[in-house]
Specification:
Pfam families: DUF3689 (PF12463). InterPro entries: TRPC4AP. By secondary structure, the chain is mostly helical. Strand 1 and strand 2 form a beta hairpin. A two-stranded antiparallel ribbon has the order 1-2. The protein is built from 40 helices and two strands. Among the domains are: 182 residues, Leucine-rich Repeat Variant, CATH 1.25.10; 130 residues.
C-alpha cells in the first residue's frame, strides 16, 4: 500500500518507503537497475500491487537513479507534489511544482504530434512515460477531483489556473503515452466530473479537448443525462464555447460504428435491433433527447451555422483563443497553418502599404480575413455534423420543424458563395501531411458535411421545398398548371416566409457547382446524393421538370458516358439520381434519346450499367417500371418515345429482363445482404411483380430454371432466391419497418409486394407460380437456417 501523501515528509514515512523499496528489489540481490525499476512500476500499474507511485521511493534514491537515467527530475517532482497536495494544503506550492513539470511534457508532446520526435542518446524514456509510470496521472486525477470532497460540510476548492495546469499535463501525457487515455476513460466518475470544469471559461478549452480524446476511446458511450446540471451548463456557454462543445457532442450522439453503416449485414443489424428493443433506447438516443430538451439549443446551433464571418468573435478574443490552442496539440497544426497564412497576408499587405506610403497595421491588431474564414469553417464543421445527426435521429420531425423555423436553409444559402463553396485562395489552409484535395482539409470537410445535411434534410420530407426561393416555387406551380396535373400539396403548404431568398435557391446553387465539378472531384458522389434526396419519395413530375430544365440529365449522361467515370461510388450515385429523374417521365426519356443518339454512345452506357448491377440496379428498376406504365398508356407522345428510345426498347426484351433477373439474384445472398445491395433483391421482385401482372410469372420462373441448367448448377439460383425471399418477409414485415419507401419507389402497393412474395414461397409443388415447383427434388435446399445471433 502506498504511503499517505500527508506522511511524505516524516521520518516514519521515509522509513516505510525505504523498507518497501528494499523488499521490492530483494530478488535481484543488489541495487536495481533503472530498467528494472520501470519494469516493476509498469507491472504495478497493470496489477495495482507493488510499486505504483513515486511516493514509495526515497528522494535520495530517486535523485541517484535520475543521474544515470536522465528522468529530468520528474520522479522527485512527483514526490514533492504528493507532499504538497494533501487535503489540508493551500495548494500554492503544489501549483509551483506543476509549473515545473508542465514544460517538461509540453515540448515533448509538441514534437511528438508534429512528427519531429528524435530519439537521442540522452533520453532513453520520454518524460510523459516516466510521469505516468511514477503515478503522475493518477495523482493529477485525485487533485482535480478534490472539489468533490467535503470537509466539515465545506467543499474543497482549487484555482482555475491549477486545474488548467493539471489538464494540460494530462492531455500531453495522453498524446505521447499509449494507454493513458483508455485508463482515464475507464474512470467514469472522473469523465463526468470533467464536464463540470467547463463552467469556467479559463479551463473550458483544455477540458473540452481532454474530454473529446477520452470519449473517442471509451468503450461505452457516456450518458449526458448523468452530467450534473447539463441544461444550465450548455445554456451558459457563449457561442464560441458551444461550437467547441459540438466536438464532444459529435462523439456522444452518434451510434457506435455508423461509419460503415452500408457495409453491415442486415442479418447483424436485425439481430442488434432485436437486442436493442429489449434494452430500451441507446445511449446515443438518450443523449439526443437530453440535448433537444435544453431550451434554445437547436436555435443557437442554427445561428452558429448561419452567422457570417463578420458576425463572429472579435479579433482580440479570437487571438486569445488561438494562443490557448497553441498548447493544445489537437489543433496545433491548424494553428501553425493559420499563422502561416497570416504571415503571408501580413507581408503582402505590408508591401502594398509601403508602396502607397500608408502606415502598416500589425497582424496582432488586424486579423487576416482568411484566418477569420478558417476559424468560422472549423466551427461550422462541428455544428453542421451535430444538426445532421439530430436530423437522422428518432426526433427527426421535431428537429425538422425547429430547423425550418430558425431559417437554417436560407441562412446557409446566403453563405453558399462566400464561405461554403468559396474559391480556394493561393494560401488556402492545408493541414500538416495533407494537400488541398485531401478529404481531411477543413474546406473540403465543410462542403461534404453541408451536402450530407442537405441530403438528410430533403430525404422523404415535405420541408425539402425550403431549398427553393419564391420564384422557383412559382415555377413548380407553373409546370403543374401547364401539364394539367394537380399541384403538389407540399408546395402549396410551404411557408413562403421560411424559403430561400435571393436570385437562386440552395438547390439551384448546388446544381450550378455540380455541373462545374471536375471529373475526379470527390464531391460528385455527395452532390448527386443531395440532389437525389430531393427527388425521393412519391414521384413528382414538376420536381423532375424543374431539374431537367436546368440540364441535369445531360450533365449526368456526360459524366457516365463521355467522361467514362471509373469511381464505383460516383457511378452508383449518378445511376440512382438518373433513375429518380427519369422515372415515369416521357420528357426525360426523350431527352435521354436525344443525348444518347448513336449506337456507340448507347453501348458505352450499357457497358457502365452492366459493369456493376449493385450500382446500377435502381436505374434498371426505374426504367422497367416506366416501360410498364408507358405500355399501358394511350398517348401519341408516349407512343413516339416507345418507338424511338433505345433504352426502353432494350429493357422491353424478355432476354434482357431475364439476364438482369438472373444476375441480380446471383450476386446477393442472405449472409451478404446490406443496406447497399438489398436493392438488388427488391429490383428482382419488381421485375417478377410486373410479370405477374401480365400473367407471365410462370414463364419467368421456367426461364430461370433453364438458365440454371445451362450453367450446370441446377437449383443453386432458385434455392438462393427462396432463402432471400424468406429473409425479405422477416425483414420487411417486421412491425418497426416502414414500407412506404417500397411503395413510393415503385408505385406498387405494399400488399401486392407481400402477396407476390407469398405466392413465390408457396410450398405447394403443384403451383405454377411457386419457386419449389422449379427446383428438382435432389437439389432442394430451401430450409437453411440463416439467422444470426
Amino acid at each position: 500500500m502506498a504511503a499517505a501523501p500527508a506522511a511524505a515528509g516524516s521520518g516514519a514515512g521515509r522509513g516505510r518507503r525505504a523498507a518497501a523499496t528494499v523488499a521490492a528489489w530483494g530478488g535481484w540481490g543488489g541495487r536495481p537497475r533503472p530498467g528494472n525499476i520501470l519494469l516493476q512500476l509498469r507491472q504495478g500499474q497493470l496489477t495495482g500491487r507493488g510499486l505504483v507511485r513515486a511516493v514509495q521511493f526515497t528522494e535520495t534514491f530517486l535523485a541517484e537513479r535520475d543521474k544515470q537515467s536522465k528522468w529530468s527530475g520528474i520522479p522527485q517532482l512527483l514526490l514533492k507534489l504528493y507532499a504538497t497536495s494533501h487535503l489540508h494544503s493551500d495548494f500554492i506550492e503544489c501549483q509551483n511544482i506543476l509549473k515545473e513539470i508542465s514544460p517538461l511534457l509540453s515540448m515533448e508532446a509538441m514534437a511528438f504530434v508534429t512528427e519531429e520526435r528524435k530519439l537521442t542518446q540522452e533520453t532513453t524514456y520520454p518524460n510523459t512515460y516516466i510521469f505516468d509510470l511514477f503515478g503522475g496521472v493518477d495523482l493529477l486525477v485525485e487533485i482535480l477531483m478534490r472539489p468533490t470532497i467535503s470537509i466539515r460540510g465545506q467543499k474543497l476548492k482549487i484555482s482555475d489556473e491549477m486545474s488548467k495546469d493539471c489538464l494540460s499535463i494530462l492531455y500531453n501525457t495522453c498524446v505521447c503515452t499509449e494507454g493513458v487515455t483508455k485508463r482515464l476513460a475507464e474512470k467514469n466518475d472522473f469523465v463526468i466530473f470533467l464536464f463540470t470544469l467547463m463552467t469556467s471559461k479559463k479551463t473550458f478549452l483544455q477540458t473540452a479537448t481532454l474530454i473529446e480524446d477520452i470519449l473517442g476511446v471509451k468503450k461505452e458511450m457516456i450518458r449526458l443525462d448523468e452530467v450534473p446540471n447539463l441544461s444550465s451548463l450548455v445554456s451558459n456557454f457563449d457561442q464560441q464555447q458551444l461550437a467547441n462543445f459540438c466536438r464532444i457532442l459529435a462523439v456522444t450522439i452518434s451510434e457506435m460504428d455508423t461509419g460503415n453503416d452500408d457495409k453491415h449485414t442486415l442479418l447483424a443489424k436485425n439481430a442488434q435491433q432485436k437486442k436493442s428493443l429489449s434494452l430500451g433506447p441507446s445511449a446515443a438516443e438518450i443523449n439526443q433527447a437530453a440535448l433537444l430538451s435544453i431550451p434554445g439549443f437547436v436555435e443557437r446551433l442554427c445561428k452558429l451555422a448561419t452567422r457570417k464571418v463578420s458576425e463572429s468573435t472579435g479579433t482580440a478574443s479570437f487571438l486569445q483563443e488561438l494562443e490557448e490552442w497553441y498548447t493544445w496539440l489537437d489543433n496545433a497544426l491548424v494553428l501553425d497553418a493559420l499563422m502561416r497564412v497570416a504571415n503571408e497576408e501580413s507581408e503582402h499587405n505590408q508591401g502594398a502599404s509601403e508602396e502607397n506610403g500608408l502606415p502598416h497595421t500589425s497582424t496582432r491588431t488586424q486579423l487576416p480575413q482568411s484566418m477569420k474564414i478558417m476559424h468560422e469553417i472549423m466551427y461550422k464543421l462541428e455544428v453542421l455534423y451535430v444538426l445532421c445527426v439530430l436530423l437522422m435521429g428518432r426526433q427527426r420531425n421535431q428537429v425538422h420543424r425547429m430547423i425550418a423555423e430558425f431559417k437554417l436553409i436560407p441562412g446557409l444559402n446566403n453563405l453558399f458563395d462566400k464561405l461554403i463553396w468559396r474559391k480556394h485562395s493561393a494560401s488556402a489552409l492545408v493541414l500538416h501531411g495533407h494537400n488541398q484535395n485531401c478529404d481531411c482539409s477543413p474546406d473540403i470537410t465543410l462542403k461534404i458535411q453541408f451536402l450530407r445535411l442537405l441530403q438528410s434534410f430533403s430525404d422523404h420530407h415535405e420541408n425539402k421545398y425550403l431549398l427553393l426561393n419564391n420564384q422557383e416555387l412559382n415555377e413548380l406551380s407553373a409546370i403543374s398548371l401547364k401539364a394539367n396535373i394537380p399541384e403538389v400539396e407540399a408546395v402549396l403548404n410551404t411557408d413562403r416566409s421560411l424559403v430561400c431568398d435571393g436570385k437562386r435557391g440552395l438547390l439551384t446553387r448546388l446544381l450550378q457547382v455540380m455541373k462545374k465539378e471536375p471529373a475526379e472531384s470527390s464531391f460528385r458522389f455527395w452532390q448527386a446524393r443531395a440532389v437525389e434526396s430531393f427527388l425521393r419519395g412519391t414521384t413528382s413530375y414538376a420536381d423532375q421538370m424543374f431539374l431537367l430544365k436546368r440540364g441535369l440529365l445531360e450533365h449526368i449522361l456526360y459524366c457516365i458516358v463521355d467522361s467514362e467515370c471509373k469511381s464505383r461510388d460516383v457511378l452508383q450515385s449518378y445511376f440512382d439520381l438518373l433513375g429518380e429523374l427519369m422515372k415515369f417521365n416521357v420528357d426525360a426519356f426523350k431527352r435521354f434519346n436525344k443525348y444518347i443518339n448513336t449506337d456507340a454512345k448507347f453501348q458505352v452506357f450499357l457497358k457502365q450499367i452492366n459493369s456493376s448491377l449493385v450500382d446500377s440496379n435502381m436505374l434498371v428498376r426505374c426504367v422497367t417500371l416506366s416501360l410498364d406504365r408507358f405500355e399501358n398508356q394511350v398517348d401519341m407522345k408516349v407512343a413516339e418515345v416507345l418507338s424511338e428510345c433505345r433504352l426502353l426498347a432494350y429493357i422491353s426484351q424478355v432476354p434482357t429482363q431475364m439476364s438482369f433477373l438472373f444476375r441480380l439474384i446471383n450476386i446477393i445472398h442472405v449472409q451478404t445482404l446490406t443496406q447497399e445491395n438489398v436493392s438488388c433483391l427488391n429490383t428482382s421482385l419488381v421485375i417478377l411483380m410486373l410479370a405477374r401482372r401480365k400473367e407471365r410469372l410462370p414463364l419467368y420462373l421456367r426461364l430461370l430454371q433453364r438458365m440454371e441448367h445451362s450453367k450446370k448448377y441446377p437449383g443453386f439460383l432458385l434455392n438462393n432466391f427462396h432463402n432471400l425471399l424468406r429473409f425479405w418477409q422477416q425483414h420487411y414485415l417486421h412491425k418497426d419497418k416502414d414500407s412506404t419507401c417500397l411503395e413510393n419507389s415503385s408505385c406498387i402497393s405494399f400488399s401486392y409486394w407481400k402477396e407476390t412474395v407469398s405466392i413465390l414461397l408457396n410450398p405447394d409443388r403443384q403451383s405454377p407460380s411457386a419457386l419449389v415447383s422449379y427446383i428438382e427434388e435432389p437439389y432442394m435446399d430451401i430450409d437453411r437456417d440463416f439467422t444470426e445471433e
